[in-house]
Every structure is written in C-alpha cells, then in structure tokens.
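Quick check before the chapter quiz. The format below is the same one you will see on the exam, so make sure you can read both the input and the output lines.
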Amino acid sequence: MTDVAAVVRGTIAPQLDRALAASRANPLPAAPSALRAEPAHSAQLFGRLLGAAIDAAPTAARPEDPPSASRPAADAAADPAAATVVELLDAYRSGTTTPCAVLAALAPHWTSDDVWSDAVLRLVDGAEAAAAESTRRWADDEARPLEGIPFAVKDIIDVAGTIVTSGSLQTGDRVAPADATVVARLRAAGAIPVFTAATTEFACGGPHNARYGAVRNPWDPERWTGGSSTGSGSALAARIVPLALGSDTGGSIRVPSALCGTTGIKPTYGLVPRTGVASLSWTLDHVGPMARSAEDLALVLAVVAGSDGEDPTSFTAVPLIEAAPERVEGLRIGVPRGWFTERVDTAVLDAHAAATERFRELGATLVPIEFDDLESIDAECWTVFYGELAANQEANAATADLFDAGTRARFDVSFLPTAADYLRALRRRPLVQAAMVARMDEAGVDVVLTPGIGATAPRLDDLTMSVDGERFNLHDVVPRNTRLFDYVGFPALMMPAGTAPDGLPVGVQLVARPWDDRLVLSAAAAFQRVTTHHRLVPPSSAVRGPTDQ
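Here is the expected output.
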C-alpha cells in the first residue's frame, strides 16, 4: 500500500507554499484606503442581505404537491430503510408504521459487520425510550415537526452523556456535557439521536483515521466516502439512517454527499449555531443537515436555524426556509465555466450539462456567469484554514504524535502563515463577498449551478482520483469547487446528478447569495421531483428490494 503519510505531506506543504506566495504577491492597498476590508464589513453585508431575504421570503408554507411519476414514494411500512424523512413522517401520520417499528428495523444494522458499520462509532442511550414516546405522541395527535425521525451525529458534535472524540486519540474518552444546539433542537422537534458517526480527525485528518480506521464507500469498499463527514455520508447512502448532522469547513458536508449519492446543504454562515461543535477553523466552520432529498433538508434546516444566544456569529431573525415552493419556473440560474469546470472529469461535466438542461426544461433561464480571480481566492481559503487550525490545536503540540497522518501533516505546516498572511486573507474576504454578490446582481441570477466534486470517490489504497484517466491526489481535486463557498459563507447544496461509467455517483452544486438557502432548496427539490438520481441505492445497503429503485 502507498505510504499515506508521505503522500499527504508531499501534497499539503506545496499547496500551502503556493497559496502563501500567491497571496503575498497581491497585497491589499496600504492605508489610507477606502476599501471596505475589515471583518466587520462582512457582518454588515450579511446583515443587509438578511433584511432583503426576509422581505422576499414567502410568509406561508407551500401546499404539498403529489409525487411525480418519475419519483415513486418508498413504502415506509414495508421497508423503513428505503424511506426519506418526509416519507417516514407521512407513514407515521397515516398510522402505517410507528417510530418503534422503524427503530426496530434499522437498529440491527448499526451493529452489523458489513461495510456500513464503518460509519457507526457509538450508540446513543435512550433511543428506544424516545421512540416509544414518539409513538405515543403520534397516537395522541401530539406529534412535533420531526417526531420519531432517527438521526446520526457527526463525532465532532456533542450529544449529552455520549463519548464524543472528534475522531482523535488526543481527546481520550471525552463525554459530552450537554447537547450541541443543533442536537437539542432536533430532540425538541421529536427527532431521535441514535449513533455518533465517524469523522476524519478534528474534521481535517486523512481518510485512514488513526483511532477508528477508514470509512469505506457503500458504492465500492475500495473507495473512500469523502470527508470529513465520512460516517454521515456512508450511513445515509447505506440507508441505515434517514438523516445525519455534518459540518463543512472546506466541503465536508457536500463532498460525502457527492461521492455517496446523497443530498446535503452547507447553510449560510451564521444561520445555524455552532455551539457544542468542535471548532476546526471558526470563520469557515458551518453545521448543517445531510439527508437523501432537498425536501428533507428544508424540514430539518427550518428546525435548527436561528440564534441560540451563545454562538456570536448566529443571527436571530432568519428567513422562513420551509416556505419555498418546489418549482424553478422563472428562476435565473448562473452557469459558470473556467475554474469550476477545470480538473473535472467528463462524467461530472456531462452530469452538470444534463442537470442544466433539465432546469431549462423546468422553466429556468440559464445565464453564463464568471467570478473573478478564483485561483487567488482559493489561496486565501488555505491561509485562513491553516491560521485557525494552528490556533485551535497548538495546545496539542506536545502530543502531536497522536495525530493521524493527515492531521499531523496539516498541523506541521499550520504555523507557516504569518499574522500578516492570516489578516490579509480575512481582509480580502469582505471584498470577495461583495464582488460575488455584485456579479450575481449584474447578471440577474438567483442561484448558481456548478459541477460537484471533480471525479468519483478516491481510492483508499493510494488516495488518488481519476480525471479523464489522469490520476490526482485527492487533495488536488476534492475541495476545489467547495471551499470557496466556506470562505464567503454563501449557502451551497450538493445533490446527486447521475453515475459515472465506473458506476459511482456524481453530483452538482447549487449556490445562492447569503440567506437565500430556500432558493437552493427549492431548486433542488424541483429537480428531484422529476429525476431519480437521489433514489439510487448502493450495492451495500439496508434496503430490502432492488438496488436500482
């Protein structure tokens, strides 16, 4: 097997060197300057856009549309593993199944020895009692919005009384003192946390986790799920749970979604509180839901959004997320080329082209759009990431040998950016955010549709991905189309868009202005009503029927 540590070190250090050189070659103007380039200018821009989004949002939830012929609903009573969140709720409502029955059907898979067992770290106590309470509530017409929905929790997100380790040997058997805000809100809505899901170490380590091992992809056990929400992506794809929580600092919700054939959203920065979530890079970190459909995501995001009074970046007033209609007629969709289509396999480009055409058929207007200087912006993403990683992990320097190869390689170079490098990257951010919003305004686009990850899932033996037959280290492909939107904080959703010739899923990404999360959810839901990509099931799954449903 390839020396994974050497591969990681040989890729990461040159990446950072290039990023720092590019940033230092392009300093911002010296004072005095009229540039709106302080971090507070980002908050000011987001505040202005939030007001506009609230004013534009519908004030009532959409009526329920019947499923289209191309998207048959799963029979949640006959096979709970095949059902989405929405379908489970419908089945509970109709009385054809109960939370207790669903828990009993899914629970054996959480302790199995098949591929998907890689995803499950620890069971959460109290699931059976919670399912019994949910079953009673449905019977007594007291159901809450997500009553009886089991969900997995990424192992950097606290679940009270549960060992939560951030996938690291550094943390020992740390027991979470309280629920993270997102977990508490899901519990309050009736959802049931059932297990903690694997992650790369501190959400940044390599695929081969030193404490728990690698998480194999249910589509092909020789491939990786993508990180860092490895277990969340695997568990959803394998149909052992209908909902999971993930986090996204450079693409960690969207990457597993693309490589495992599921749907996930990185919300607007500040929409979902990060309280109780281990920080990797606090100005890039986002928390969000992962599921199998955009319809599911809208329900869940509406529950977890809004300030908790603890996370200083979260906003109290938020738009009504679940009120977005599932249609795209009249929507103007920006279609970029250049950066987003370079180093991208033909199979991914073909899926993107097909998705673009499907949106046209649904009534959207397609508009060419390009954003300036993305290579330089990408360089700044690395600088912010490493500067904040160093600050978060410097206390572990004396025990750095406990890090896995991926984390250690990143930690070892994380102190290279100077204070000026880090602050330059922060100062450039509000300028980039304003420029991207202005470009979308000029083009008159509502959302942007990009290809997803540039290739299918990387091999676990050598950490490479194939782009039209040329092999690249996964770090040169995976975050290219995703981390830009962590840096600017725009909402970004990844959804399945087909399969490549190797039989593995590929995705497309929808992006909108800050606080327009409902638009990407609406567009994705409309797309999924007339396609079946999100219904494809991998060879390793808990679904009882055919895998091509």
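If your answer matched, good. The chain has 15 helices and 15 strands.
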